[in-house]
Write a structure and sequence with these properties.
By secondary structure, the chain is of the alpha+beta class. The chain contains 29 helices and 15 strands. The two termini are 52 Å apart.
């Protein structure tokens, strides 16, 4: 289907330009069919939340048609017959009119298309067989990505018994592992022969050259659970207690089904060969959800089969799922990675190399220290600071001497400036100062920021002056427009420059100052932010109807909307002060836009709901972030500081994650360790932490 959008009035209506969504279905349009037809993916999308979103842009409608294409097979399974089809689109919107307040700075225009009539003929068995043969041939041999995708979609929508069997034979992974995997998986969900799809996948569990990955097992389990209507959510609201009990029962049932499938695959491991066996071992570890008994069996076998794993699977395990394979048996593999020539910085192989260095250090500190120092001294390698920080001071001193020389000779790497920022002492000040002043305002932004942080750390008064000078140097670069946030925890030593920047005529610098003061400013910065919001309120009094976002986002009204949002966020979410309901009420009196009023109302509601929940994000596991109420992405140190700001007697709940609830799994021991540290610190301030979802 091709949808064509036009407007007789230029720049009045706009279209969102998107053609995909990470969830697998772009819901920006809805397709209505009369008589009604089944949604092939109803069972897939009716449970739980999916990570959605995707890149897109906007397009101003005019008399020239803007078109978007869609395939009806994605949305409806049509048997033979006559149908009327029309689309309902949420793609179109317009900027708000004067005095028209909207929460998202746009007014949606839900529109319906014309209706088209189509005739679906009964399928020709010969044609179906030829489509199956052709698609299978394309997918079984070398072909271009476009040809493979087209063949996979033909197979997905063929909806025959033979195509269902073939989908099960071909499917094994998702995303980069198997780019056509999503279409194969959706074909299994959408097949009218659900039990055949399940049986066909079961048959593949023992096929020697079929990789049984976590994605394959997850699909097989969900096909079974969603095929049983007794596990459908209640059609009426049963109340929070009953709903929670239902979902706990459903989760337990899903885990039991998964355990049974895992046992079947474990029993068939001896038949698996080559990369299929290695990927199956990897899939079992991931699907096991941290089952230690399973890990004791599978982990040694996976390490022994490491050479048969695809490189992306190896990188994934070393970088993101290390607890699944951690142990001294991995040392030879890690040493082989480090023995390779250093890859370019900031690439996936470079990240894998850094992770390997870190893990060597964990398993064998002496060997790890030697390997990390070797990379640090190698001009072709640029190890990350999270790896370099493992070295003792004496090793860092050895590495810093040539670093300072290179800075003085103007042939330093970006890493050299980062090393000076983190580890440089007073003795390097003269060399770095001379180099910096010689090219003031002409540095690349990363190197300039690193040197400014160094100055603020070792010579705060000088550093503060150079921050001010850098903010004024605007001829050659625009580094000044985000310089303040780049100062990070050193910002308080140059805080006056940030406060002064709140009144700068450059809107980008004002934004930078607001965000930096909210994230890094001392408690004194709160007063300056309140004063700037008060002045904003006065400036727009009498013309608040002009505060509306336009699609170019550069008009005074658009800039004003953005500044109000940034000021509200900085004050309400400030790291070094607390903003409880009484302050939030004061905020509400100073904002003009409906969106910010609603945001503040939401925060107040959270405060009044009782004991707030502290949520932990354990990805990566060794550097979690935390959120509580309106405060998000707090580091461990920032959470500790935030707990000290709550009124004495406050009770907060701490979220624990059970095995199978998050991926990759995080051990209960690690969660307990973080909790205990925070509990002790909170107790000193009269704050009580309560465990939630704890065994």
């Amino acid at each position: 289907m091709v949808m064509s959008f036009t407007s007789k009035t230029k720049n009045r209506y706009w279209a969102d330009v998107r053609n995909y969504d990470r969830s697998g279905r772009l819901g920006i349009e809805y397709y209505c069919v009369e008589p009604e037809a089944q949604d092939p993916l109803a069972s897939y999308f009716k449970f739980g939340a999916f990570l959605g979103g995707g890149l897109g842009s906007t397009h101003a409608l005019d008399a020239t048609p803007f078109t978007a294409e869609a395939e009806l097979n994605e949305w409806r399974t049509l048997g033979p017959g006559h149908y009327r089809v029309y689309a309902v689109s949420d793609r179109i919107w317009r900027p708000p009119d004067a005095r028209e307040q909207t929460p998202y700075h746009r007014v949606p225009e839900v529109i319906r298309s014309n209706t088209v009539e189509i005739e679906v003929n009964p399928p020709d068995p010969g044609w179906q067989s030829e489509q199956l043969r052709s698609a299978t041939q394309t997918l079984s041999g070398p072909s271009s990505p476009e040809d493979s995708r087209h063949a996979a979609r033909r197979l997905r929508f063929l909806n025959t018994k033979d195509s269902t069997k073939q989908l099960a034979k071909l499917f094994w992974g998702l995303n980069q592992r198997q780019p056509i995997g999503a279409d194969l998986m959706f074909g299994l969900y959408g097949s009218p022969y659900r039990q055949l799809a399940i049986d066909s996948m079961h048959a593949e569990l023992v096929v020697p050259d079929h990789a049984i990955t976590n994605e394959f097992l997850g699909t097989l389990v969900n096909l079974q659970v969603t095929a049983d209507p007794s596990w459908d959510p209640p059609s009426t609201d049963p109340g929070p207690g009953e709903a929670q009990a239902f979902w706990e029962r459903r989760r337990a049932h899903t885990l039991e089904v998964m355990k049974a499938e895992i046992q079947t695959v474990v029993a068939a491991l001896s038949r698996k060969t080559g990369s299929a066996r290695a990927l199956t071992l990897n899939g079992l570890l991931m699907a096991g959800g941290g089952d230690e008994r399973l890990g004791q069996t599978i982990r040694p076998a996976l390490i022994a089969a490491w050479a048969d794993l695809p490189s992306e699977a190896q990188r994934d395990l070393i970088q993101y799922r290390w607890p699944l394979i951690a142990g001294p048996e991995m040392l030879p593999i890690l040493h082989r990675i480090v023995a390779e020539p250093p890859p370019p910085a900031r690439t996936e192989p470079a990240m894998t190399r850094d992770a390997a260095l870190k893990h060597i250090y964990e398993l064998d500190p002496a060997a790890g220290r030697e390997a990390i120092l070797g990379d640090l001294l190698n001009l072709k390698a640029q190890p990350g600071l999270d790896v370099i920080k493992l070295l003792p001071r004496e090793d860092l001193a050895i590495a810093l001497r040539p670093v300072i020389e290179r800075i003085g000779n103007h042939d330093a790497r970006e890493l050299d400036y980062e090393l000076v920022d983190r580890y440089g002492g007073d003795s390097a000040l003269g060399v770095v100062q001379a180099a910096f002043e010689e090219r003031l305002g002409k540095w690349d932004c990363a190197s300039q920021s690193a040197m400014l942080r160094y100055f603020l750390r070792v010579a705060p008064e000088y550093g503060a002056r150079e921050v001010s000078a850098s903010l004024s140097a605007r001829k050659y670069t625009r580094c000044y427009s985000f310089q303040l946030q780049e100062l990070g925890k050193e910002l308080p030593k140059a805080q006056q420059s940030a406060i002064d920047a709140l009144d700068d005529p450059d809107a980008d610098l004002v934004k930078d100052a607001v965000l930096a003061l909210g994230r890094w400013g001392s408690s004194d910065a709160e007063t300056a932010l309140w004063a700037r919001l008060q002045r904003f309120h006065w400036e727009w009094t009498g013309r608040e109807d002009q505060l509306r976002s336009m699609p170019d986002y550069r008009s005074p009204g658009s800039r004003g909307v953005a500044l109000e949002q940034e000021l509200v966020s900085a004050i309400a979410k400030g790291t070094n002060w607390i903003c409880p309901p009484d302050k939030l009420a004061r905020l509400a009196e100073l904002v003009w836009t409906k969106g910010q009023m609603q945001q503040i109302e939401g925060w107040v509601k959270e405060w009044k709901q009782g004991s707030a929940m502290i949520h932990a994000s354990w990805f990566p596991e060794d550097n979690p972030t935390f959120s509580v109420l309106q405060y998000v992405q707090l580091t461990e140190d920032q959470l500790r500081a935030k707990l000290g700001q709550f009124p004495r007697g406050t009770q907060l709940r701490w979220q624990f994650w059970q095995p199978g609830q998050i991926s990759p799994p995080v051990s209960m021991a690690r969660q307990e360790a973080f909790y205990e540290r925070m509990r002790r610190d909170a107790e000193q301030h009269g704050i009580l932490l309560i465990k939630v979802n704890h065994p």
